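4.2 Preliminary Data

To establish feasibility before requesting continued support, the project team ran the inverse folding procedure on a target of 362 residues. The structure was first converted into the token representation described in Section 3, and no sequence information of any kind was made available to the design step. The complete token record follows.
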């Protein structure tokens, strides 16, 4: 583009009322206060069209040579969680498909912001990717000084999986259905407690959404992690727990130690087929977790498309579904545009819920 601008600067100009466009690299065309003749303008536009074609060709060339070196897949959480497990399943298969090693790099901290920032600042060439979880769409509403814009700093590639929370109560609870639990909560406004692993977690956000839609009030009790939050329910310290993943509660439900009243997804979960969606009682309710893969914003479209094709093949392969089912999750594998729409919708949805929760003093 710089060479094109140099060529344009060599064009002779005459007085006319047609303004000249600026060069793509930000340089100004030297006209000495004179405007271009219509014929010259056409030559300028022709050069700019050639420049656009050159950029498209460059992007295509980059995609054809991609990947040129090993790919780093950053996980913005510690080892051992569902995000890490999925990434370690996908990485070797993606490496085989692309002909380059995919290296896992765990960078936990600040609800995923530490690892995400690394990717946001990386070169947009497809060699640095990010595996995210639901807090990715929530952080912007929780942290006012975010170092990047969640909606624009990344290029979505595909949604890997979706996981449904489940609302559970202790076996000692008199409520046997969700409707009964809501009725019970309304007779004790603000007196019921629920387990949480912290603000911004899917369990916390899903409970806030549940309370807002059901018109009930309760108190959040924060625990270090899901095991501690579940233990608190089993011991009777709290009255209910919206577990972030069905898998966390399945064994306790089947053993009769807790009672599942509803799942957060719109459909029933294969791990708990007899438990109805919360939406059956509260139409429109949906709270679900997910994992997906992103690249830095500005990554050439052909590279995004190739990554999407290879990842979708892996995600939809028959051997991944059983592994996901064990975690109470389902495989997805959608288009970049579809994943982008999910992220943007969640940003808006959870921003509203967080704002309403703050206004209620939570």
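Position-by-position output of the design step:
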């Amino acid at each position: 583009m710089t060479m094109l601008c140099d060529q344009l600067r060599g064009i002779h100009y005459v007085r006319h009322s047609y303004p000249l466009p600026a060069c793509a690299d930000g340089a100004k065309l030297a006209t000495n206060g004179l405007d271009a003749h219509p014929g010259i303008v056409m030559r300028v536009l022709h050069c700019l069209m050639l420049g656009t074609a050159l950029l498209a060709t460059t992007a295509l060339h980059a995609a054809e040579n991609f990947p040129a070196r090993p790919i780093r897949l950053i996980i913005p959480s510690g080892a051992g969680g569902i995000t890490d497990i999925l990434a370690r399943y996908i990485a070797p298969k993606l490496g085989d498909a692309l002909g380059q090693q995919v290296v896992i790099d765990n960078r936990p901290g600040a609800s995923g912001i530490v690892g995400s920032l690394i990717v946001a600042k990386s070169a947009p060439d497809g060699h640095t990717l990010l595996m995210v979880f639901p807090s990715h769409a929530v952080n912007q509403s929780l942290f006012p000084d975010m170092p990047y814009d969640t909606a624009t700093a990344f290029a979505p590639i595909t949604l890997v999986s979706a996981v449904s929370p489940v609302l559970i109560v202790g076996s000692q609870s008199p409520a046997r259905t969700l409707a009964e639990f809501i009725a019970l909560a309304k007779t004790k406004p603000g007196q019921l407690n629920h387990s949480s692993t912290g603000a911004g977690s899917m369990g916390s956000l899903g409970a806030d959404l549940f309370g807002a839609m059901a018109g009930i009030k309760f108190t959040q009790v924060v625990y270090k992690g899901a095991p501690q939050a579940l233990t608190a329910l089993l011991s009777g310290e709290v009255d209910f727990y919206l577990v972030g993943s069905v898998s966390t509660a399945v064994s306790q439900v089947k053993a009769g130690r807790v009672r599942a009243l509803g799942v957060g997804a719109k459909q029933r979960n294969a791990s708990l087929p007899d438990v109805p969606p919360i939406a059956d009682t509260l139409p429109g309710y949906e709270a679900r977790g997910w994992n997906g893969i992103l690249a830095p914003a500005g990554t050439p479209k052909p590279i995004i498309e190739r990554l999407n094709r290879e990842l979708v093949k892996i995600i939809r392969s028959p051997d991944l579904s059983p592994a996901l089912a064990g975690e109470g999750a389902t495989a997805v594998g959608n288009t970049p545009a579809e994943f982008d729409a999910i992220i943007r919708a969640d940003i808006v949805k959870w921003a509203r819920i967080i704002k309403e929760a703050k206004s209620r003093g939570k």
